[in-house]
Amino acid sequence: MSVWDDLQGQAPVVAQLKQAAQGETGLTHAWLFTGPPGSGRSNAAKAFAAALNCEQDDVALRGCGECAACHTILGETHSDVTFVRTEKVTITIDEARELVSKAGDRPATGRWRIIVVEDADRMAERTTNVLLKAIEEPTPRTIWMLCAPSPADVLVTIRSRCRPVSLRLPPASDVADLLVRRDGVDRQLADIAARAAQSHIGIARRLARDADARQRRLDTVRIPLGLRGVTAAVMMAEKLVKIATDEANSSNDERDAAEKIALLASLGAPESGTLPPSMRSQVRQLEDDQKRRAKRSITDSLDRTLTDLLSFYRDVLIIQLGNAVELVNVELKSDLEEYAGHSTPETTLARMDAINKARVRITTTNVAPLLAVESMATSLIQQ
């Protein structure tokens, strides 16, 4: 199995990266991978990093997925390949300085020292400027790979120095094929999950494996059907925030507890009694990091919940415009058709715009999520 196999529906991108890895085209020192969430931009960067340091002598076989270098890079344990992702709101300037320092080292075992920044859009301008010189004038054996939703999410001074790689969302059928082949998911369930996730591979995999996640999503999509007044709108907002919070907390609580146990064990903490001051400070630092991570995970979960809600109005608009493409929420077709008959395409577009504005406010400002969602919900009330 080669490193390219998970890049479903991305044949042009795979061809571009293979040519670069094989030396058929000029290999530049900085790359910018862009594409919507779920398009696999970080997977593409990881596969490219593996192909560049693959141990195969035959360049046509680079990215074999079988050698030690491919295995360790895909497992993110290779000494010459650094993966950077943040579970906080932003990548800090100190973390950026560490990357610049690491980028100056020569590769220890591979051909290239590679820095993969998966959240390049989560850097403030001052932080990005720290990377600018290192990306503009890198050491001879260093390659930077930045990932972001779109080129506009990265400073023009950075993107002008990077070779662009643009990815798109794969067709739902390709995502379903991947779930069946890689994860052993039943074909019918794979089709449902891929369509409901709107081709987001990671979300599709979670929906296919978690019945509770599928039910939470269905509850979200059905909410507009009962939206008849301000009281219902306020209750809807509370329900949406609760769904997103429960979704985030379900994965955070167990992880937080395990991290605290591991930290105490590594510090040699006593099983009972008061911790020494030095240990308390490290535990407090861990708890602070976990709180920042929880804030981002709730924000990301709420953004995903609103994306699911957006799919309801997307389907309504499709029906109003003549069913030109397949619906996302096929199981609600009769409800969607009835809803579509009581509004106009203009009204539906206005409601979709209200949801997108709420998403932007929640992910880019410090507004209280509940207030943003309540404001959005009042715009969705069905007359």
Properties at a glance:
383 residues, alpha/beta, five-stranded parallel β-sheet, 15 helices
Protein model, in words:
The structure is a single chain. It is built from 15 helices and five strands. A five-stranded parallel sheet has the order 2-3-4-1-5, with helices on one face. The model has no long low-confidence stretch (mean pLDDT 86). The chain is α/β, with parallel strands linked by helices. β3, α5 and β4 (142-148) form a beta-alpha-beta unit.
Q: Helicity level, as a percent range? A: 55-70%
Mean pLDDT: 86
**Which strands sit side by side, in order, in the main sheet?**
2-3-4-1-5
Run of helices and strands: HEHHEHEHEHEHHHHHHHHH
Identify low-pLDDT runs: none
Radius of gyration: 23 Å
Instruction: Give the biggest beta sheet.
Output: 5 strands, parallel
N/C terminus separation: 55 Å
- Give the class from helix and strand content and strand pairing: alpha/beta
Strand content: 5-15%
Q: Could you tell me the number of beta strands?
A: 5
Q: How many helical stretches?
A: 15
Shape: globular
Present the secondary structure layout:
Elements: H1 11-21, E1 30-34, H2 41-52, H3 68-74, E2 81-84, H4 93-103, E3 113-117, H5 125-136, E4 142-148, H6 156-159, E5 163-166, H7 172-183, H8 187-196, H9 201-209, H10 211-222, H11 230-267, H12 277-320, H13 333-340, H14 345-364, H15 369-378
Parallel strand pairs: 1-4, 1-5, 2-3, 3-4
What is the compact description of this entry?
This protein has 383 residues and is α/β, with parallel strands linked by helices. 57% of the residues lie in helices and 7% in strands.
